Amino acid sequence: xxxxxxxxxxxxxxxxxxxxxxxxxxxxxxxxxxxxxxxxxxxxxxxxxxxxxxxxxxxxxxxxxxxxxxxxxxxxxxxxxxxxxxxxxxxxxxxxxxxxxxxxxxxxxxxxxxxxxxxxxxxxxxxxxxxxxxxxxxxxxxxxxxxxxxxxxxxxxxxxxxxxxx
Length: 166
Description:
Rossmann fold
């Protein structure tokens, strides 16, 4: 007669031998290379018109070539940026299957510093870093999030049928 510890050991060994062959394909994952893209990416520009605020919000999409509904990543640039900044992030994430929406915030975008003398840039940036622009930026994000489901259902729109709205 076996002791309870011997019986438990034998059962554990049997479980490992019975389950391990089933897990062979599940346990092993492909090596992750952060610089490698898994698919080709397309990019398009668009301007969202938020009619309630009479405000145009420039947008750039990075889309995976893979069709169907995909998860969405929203990107909001920093002070003095644009929808065209950090494209490597959009390309990488879209290459991994995400729809990336890069928005631009008028009033706190590159228009703040473009055309300014170098000595005036810092003052212009400080002036643009205000509560009103923060509020506008938050409302821009809300407008883009609201528009995603509309774009997803609009025939001919670049995001038609592409956005996982859940």
